[in-house]
């Protein structure tokens, strides 16, 4: 097997990976928007889709556009402009997932209505239990783009 064939197989692997990630992101974004417009919260196992205007509406729109960026950038990921689209999709996921994680942290610290100022240890750890929002599910899968960036710059150094 030549080096060119190996590179082409890797490109196909990245194409499939980011295509699937883009489709899932697109589906989560559409689901966020539909649930927000429907007005009722939706929960399925470890997945929770909120219905509030900010996280459900704007967050859903951002996740939807992350999926669009992924899908528009998968064609030739070795080209810098296409890679930039995939990076933008990942950055959008990171922003929404980061705000979701920050919200979980800040909600876990204060005590309840009838409790003290600070939450108990059981209540603190219980705040991190499922269900999770869609962007938190997408977060670990979006980190693969860091490897693609590293690979791109390593390839540029060799030229």
C-alpha geometry: elongated
Poorly predicted regions are none
Overall residue-averaged pLDDT value: 89
Sheet with the most strands, sense and barrel status: 2 strands, antiparallel
Radius of gyration: 19 Å
* Count of DSSP strands: 2
Series of H and E elements: HEEHHHHH
Count of all domains:
1
What does this 3D model show about the protein?
The protein has 159 residues and is mainly α. It has one domain (3-158). It is 73% helix and 4% strand. The chain has six helices and two strands. α1 packs antiparallel against α2, α1 (3-38) packs antiparallel against α5 and α3 packs across α5. The longest helix has 36 residues, at 3-38.
Quick recap of the structure?
The chain is mainly alpha-helical and 159 residues long. Helices cover 73% and strands 4% of the residues. It has one domain (3-158).
Keywords:
159 residues, mainly alpha, two-stranded antiparallel ribbon, 6 helices, 73% helix
Q: Helix and strand layout, with pairings?
A:
Blueprint: H1 3-38, E1 42-44, E2 47-49, H2 53-73, H3 80-108, H4 121-126, H5 134-142, H6 144-158
Helix pairs in contact: 1-2, 1-5, 2-3, 3-5, 3-6
């Amino acid at each position: 097997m030549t080096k060119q064939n190996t590179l082409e197989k890797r490109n196909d692997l990245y194409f499939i990976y980011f295509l699937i990630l883009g489709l899932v992101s697109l589906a989560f974004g559409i689901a966020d928007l539909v649930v927000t417009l429907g007005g009722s919260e939706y929960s399925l196992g470890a997945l929770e889709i909120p219905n509030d205007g900010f996280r459900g509406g704007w967050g859903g729109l951002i996740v939807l556009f992350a999926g669009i960026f992924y899908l528009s950038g998968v064609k030739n990921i070795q080209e810098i402009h296409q890679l930039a689209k995939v990076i933008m999709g990942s950055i959008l996921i990171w922003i929404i997932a980061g705000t979701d994680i920050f919200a979980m942290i800040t909600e876990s610290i204060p005590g309840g209505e009838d409790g003290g100022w600070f939450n108990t240890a059981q209540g603190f750890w219980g705040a991190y239990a499922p269900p999770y929002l869609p962007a938190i599910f997408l977060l670990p899968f979006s980190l693969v783009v860091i490897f693609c960036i590293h690979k791109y710059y390593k390839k540029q150094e060799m030229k």
